[in-house]
Write a structure and sequence with these properties.
Number of helices: 15
Largest sheet: 5 strands, mixed
Oligomer: single chain
Radius of gyration: 19 Å
Mean pLDDT: 96
Structural class: alpha/beta
Number of strands: 13
Shape: globular
Low-confidence stretches: none
Bound molecules: 1,3-dihydroxyacetonephosphate, iron/sulfur cluster
Strand content: 15-25%
């Protein structure tokens, strides 16, 4: 089968079987083209809440599929590739954080959405990269324990100096590996380009950027900018998608090492198997986990509204 034929079959089957296809912005071109909704983690959370279909297939990583299940427990939720996990989400578990939490009894526990459902059950509020500053600003308590991404937490702390934000040593191995050296190299190769980076990058990298934002914010910035050249400091798929959307502009990688194997693992054939009902991993969470983890996700949606 050609790519086009597989895509047509996926579209036919998802409509026939009342399936909503969600894809994170880091997914491949072939997948993004057949998805009902593509976006950053916050946009996917909202879409998950509003989806009318009985089944949701998530092309992304496991915590994203868990978020869909928590928001819509009555739906069948399938992670398109069973092994697509986020290493950052696995860095801290409920037992570890319960112990740390006891030492910070007066802090509000803010969890990046890149956490397991189990860990979310003991957190107060969730945030995503696009909503973190906005949400933490609205939290009445100035004492915040932020987990697990130290870089995103540092980015928020710099934007909100009145808050006392305690950070833990976690982070995204893909974004955290990029250094100032990569910025100098990319800027030397493309002197006219603007540098757009994700806040999961280190403070030394975000300090050198022209713009810092979530995957969708980076895309919107590049699409709407009068500029014609950009260095993209996040997973390299974003540069590809932007090149399709803006053929007259040029997009370069901050580092060709910025490839997330977990986001790349899902193929169009995996997706075809899911809509045929023979692939993926069905997300199964117990009632208590759903009930308790939902508290911090609902709080995120409530505080995340403009
Ligand atoms: P956003 O989609 O919130 O920009 O996050 C990027 C990411 O790394 C998701 O795993
Ligand atoms: Fe996790 Fe980083 Fe991959 Fe996003 S890019 S899924 S944070 S490892």
């Amino acid at each position: 089968m050609t790519v086009r034929e597989i895509q047509d079959e996926i579209i036919r089957l998802k409509q026939a079987q009342d399936i909503c296809l969600l894809a994170h912005s880091y997914q491949s071109r072939e997948i993004v083209e057949v998805a009902d909704i593509t976006g950053d983690s916050f946009q996917l959370s909202l879409a998950a809440k509003e989806a009318k279909q009985k089944t949701v297939v998530m092309c992304g990583v496991k915590f994203m599929a868990e978020t869909v299940k928590i928001l819509s427990p009555e739906k069948r939720v399938i992670l398109a590739h069973p092994e697509a996990g986020c290493p950052m989400a696995e860095q801290m578990d409920k037992d570890l954080i319960s112990g740390i939490k006891a030492k910070y009894p007066h802090h509000t526990i803010v969890a990046y959405i890149n956490t397991t459902a189990g860990l979310k059950t003991i957190c107060d509020v969730c945030v995503t990269s696009s909503s973190a500053v906005h949400i933490i600003k609205k939290i009445p308590n100035d004492n915040i324990l932020f987990l697990p991404d130290r870089n995103l937490g540092a980015y928020v702390a710099a934007k909100l100096p009145d808050k006392s934000i305690h950070l833990l040593p976690g982070g995204c191995p893909i974004h955290a590996a990029v250094a100032a050296y990569d910025v100098h190299k990319a800027r030397a190769a493309h002197p006219g380009a603007l540098l757009l980076v994700h806040p999961e990058c280190t403070p030394e990298v975000t300090a050198l950027a022209d713009f810092t934002g979530s995957t969708s914010a980076i895309m919107d910035y590049a699409v709407n900018s009068q500029h014609s050249e950009f260095i993209i400091g996040t997973e390299i798929s974003i540069a590809w998608h932007l090149q399709y959307r803006c053929p007259g502009k040029r997009f370069y990688y901050l580092s060709k090492e910025m490839i997330c194997p977990n986001m790349r693992i899902t193929t169009l054939i995996d997706l075809l198997d899911c809509v045929k009902g023979i692939g993926g991993l069905e997300i199964d969470l117990d009632e208590n986990t759903i009930k308790q983890a939902r508290v911090c996700i609902d709080k995120m949606i409530e505080l995340g509204a403009p």
